[in-house]
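User: Batch of two.

Assistant: Item 1 of 2:
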Amino acid sequence: MTVVEIEANLQRQRVTLDLQSIVESAAEFLEDAPAREIIRWAAATFGDRLCLTSSMSDALLIDLVSRVKPGVDVLFIDTGYHFAETIGTRDAVRQVYDVNVIDIQPSRTVAEQDRDLGPRLFGRNPDLCCYLRKVEPLNRALEPYLAWISGIRRDESPTRTNTKVVEWDAKRQMVKVNPIARWTQEEVDNYIADNGVLINPLHYDNYPSIGCGPCTRQVAPGEDPRSGRWAGLGKIECGIHL
């Protein structure tokens, strides 16, 4: 290893330690802060090295963040399996909000994946399919940033119960900001209604949680809102937030 490479590694280690220190203090003093204040802190701390991700289930997070940081980068993973309504919501977001939507593509098209790994991988090995079409593309897209904002909430699933409003994303070695982590579904619904937020029209057709078309079904009244995701496959997360 050259002297330049050694110095570069040391610099990366110093940056990582600094970011982890920021997370520890921010997680504590922002725990009870309003979502907009959490976003203001993130925007002031990370500037243009901050982005947010959106599955285009709704534009709540986009609405919140764009009011604080107009022009923010919004990463949308175009898996190749999205409902037409999801693509339409993405296109509408581009027209309505002051954001920079960036389409993230998997390394293989659906046809190439079918050729290399066989058709309907989502049914045979959903974890691998999610990794190839969601997790790996996002990991690649997040590399230029120091922090990213997600819309996950504690009440969505057992795996998200301990989500902090600011946390260290050890897998990606960056800061993860979850400004609506404490929100309930009622608070989400009220914000959408009060602010005229764009939502995916599939919500009106009993799809409370929307993912890729082949792995998302309608949910009956009284069912868990996320029960329509990977139904019958023993899976509740795509892997992005694990």
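Item 2 of 2:
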Amino acid sequence: MNLSQAFDEIVLKRRSNRRFDTEILVPDEVIQKSLERAILSPNSSNMQLWEFYWISSPEQKAQYEKLCLGQSAARTAAHLVVFVTRQDHWKKHAQWNIDQIKSSISGEPSKLEKRALDYYGILMPILYRTDILGLSTLIRRAITFVKGFNNPFMRFAGLADQRVMVHKSCALAAQTFMLSIAAEGYDTCPMEGFDAKLVKRALNLPNEAEINMIVAVGKGTEEGIYGKRNRLPIEELVFKR
């Protein structure tokens, strides 16, 4: 089997399964490996503004079952993984990237290395900085207006843009995780039905953190698949230009 066929098999196998076999355990090694793969997911500017909380103890799972509104996927899961966005970590992660670049420099930095240092030292603060008065947002709007007046430019200004960006990256990691679980022979169910406020409280997260999704993991059952996988025709969704 070539790589294309193997990937086809994984994608076709992955279904949202809402009821797992509670008699079949999912080894910790499977979750660990899948989380390591998830960390390799593409993300905006390699800022990695995410955290993954692995819920595995019976006591913790019982708590999160309630926070997931008693869904059967949460109730029967062998493990739960909470995917969290952490845009409040932007300073620390920008500095981490700067340190990585500096550690690879031998002698005087090249033009490309200087650009990379400026990217994280100047551009990232412009993109992510916030303040009580909203001055940072006004500055971003002004830059966008001037730079984009007659030319294509990234239209990025307010807090909503920041939230969209970090949630996109976090969702990419969650998808990698789910495909990895499928490759290991187990099943997942990404859940949006949960009390985000109480989940944040249970995880002791600050206000700036947000729950992207909670993924239940287990060995799926036939009754956990709610019907055929129906999708709109590709011609209604894909437009070649």
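Residues 159-183 form the longest helix (25 residues).
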